[in-house]
Amino acid sequence: MAILRSVVDVNNGNSGWTKENVIDALETVFANLGMHGGTGISGVPQWVGSPTGSLTYNTGGFDTASRDLPITAYTSHYYTVISQGTTAYRMLKEHRVTSAYYFYADTDPTHPNEIRIDGHGFTTGQAVHWAPGGTIETQNVAGLTLDTIYYIIVVDDDYFKLAANATDAANDTAITLSYGGWASTSALKSNTGYNFRDINDASFDNRTINIESGDVIYFAVDDTSGGTFNLCGGTDDYDANKLLTTPSWRDIVGSPGLAAIPTNDNISSGTCTFNGAYWYQSENEKNLPDEQIPIDFRSNTEKIFSNYGLTKYIYCSSTESAMKGEIVISPALQNNSGIDDYWKYTVPASGGRSELKLRIYRDHLYGHIQQILINSIGSGWSNGEVFTIPGDQIGGSMSMVFLVLMLGDIHYQQQMPQHLVVLK
């Protein structure tokens, strides 16, 4: 085979080279060799910053546009798991009222006939089962009947009333909760009462369970299918090599050596506990294209976690393939989380510039913006363009974050801009 020789002059043979001149010449060489070919792209976003050019907390940078967010308490979720033959797990969520004072009698001046469960998530007209199987009347609520289905009337995110039927709920006709004798204006009769639970309905079969980073799930398992109840990661189906109790897998999908190991996994009865602390949030989109993922991760398809790609969690039966569902972990700032979560935001296309996908990381100890990743190849942007991110899109409320765009060019399709923008 003949060896061909060609010369590419840096800066067209002129003196006074710059780093950009050298890179341009190398790109030409690679293109001549058939590498990194394709159409050139200009106006490629490579860096974003605050209006002052600083991303460091408390220096007049991001913190002036988006202040610290409060770190909130984690939530405990309780599910009764009942096997439906060998076809499904029926996942019935228990809604717990943690204080006698949270059942307010009709004599309460502020919340008459209301019940408080912070962040209850109910909708008006939704059916709930009060005290399923309950028989101890002294632990009941005055005005309610044990082991009975009622219908929700939403007051706000934390308060609701109960109706006898769906029509009453729609008409805002609430059941009267009278004084129960336990505490002032409380309708509860004792300090150890019952709780609400989803009705036993097929709509809850193999349901997706949504939690926030740091939340804890308690699964009360009653599995008579012949298999066992398990938690797996990075798979759509049961895989004995991807159990969240397997150290090699746990160190991949969780923070290495720190992920809270699920307790009582692989059981047919009892309580299985999943602690969301130190587990990466769920992700269905890669951070980097395949060619940019470090080679040791690309060569092992099992080693894909949210720093580079996909993260998925499921509950599943060890023997029955139809009995499974997904656990989705969303980003949050909680006192039980040990990982800096991120929020996705896409700057919409405008004029001649493309959309721009971003991931905004917040520090899990203080709530401030820590870093930003560019997650797409943009084009057509101009240096110094400004765009705005609504604070309620990145874990905040009404705050707005103002970001300045810095640019570069890529001359061939296979080349990528710099992704990691800033460190704390």
Care to describe what's here?
With 424 residues, the protein is mainly beta. It has four domains: 1-35, no CATH class; 43-71 and 337-424, no CATH class; 97-194, no CATH class; 202-330, Immunoglobulin-like (Sandwich), CATH 2.60.40. It contains five helices and 19 strands. The strands form four sheets. Strands 4-7-6-5-8-3-2-10-12 form a nine-stranded mixed β-sheet. Strands 9-14-13-11 form a four-stranded mixed β-sheet.
Describe how the helices and strands are arranged.
Elements (H helix, E strand, L loop, with lengths): L18 H14 L8 E9 L12 H4 L10 E9 L3 E8 L19 E2 L10 E4 L17 E7 L4 E5 L2 H5 L25 E3 L10 E4 L3 E7 L6 E5 L13 H7 L15 E7 L19 H4 L14 E5 L6 E7 L11 E6 L8 E7 L6 E6 L11 E5 L9 E11 L14
Parallel strand pairs: 2-10, 9-14
Antiparallel strand pairs: 1-19, 2-3, 3-8, 4-7, 5-6, 5-8, 6-7, 10-12, 11-13, 13-14, 15-16, 16-17, 18-19
Descriptive keywords:
424 residues, mainly beta, 4 domains, nine-stranded mixed beta sheet, disordered C terminus
What's a concise summary of this model?
By secondary structure, this protein is mainly beta.
User: What characteristic shape results from the CA principal axes?
Assistant: elongated
Write down the domain tally.
4
Cα-to-Cα separation, first versus last residue: 53 Å
Helix content: under 10%
Q: How confident overall, as mean pLDDT?
A: 83
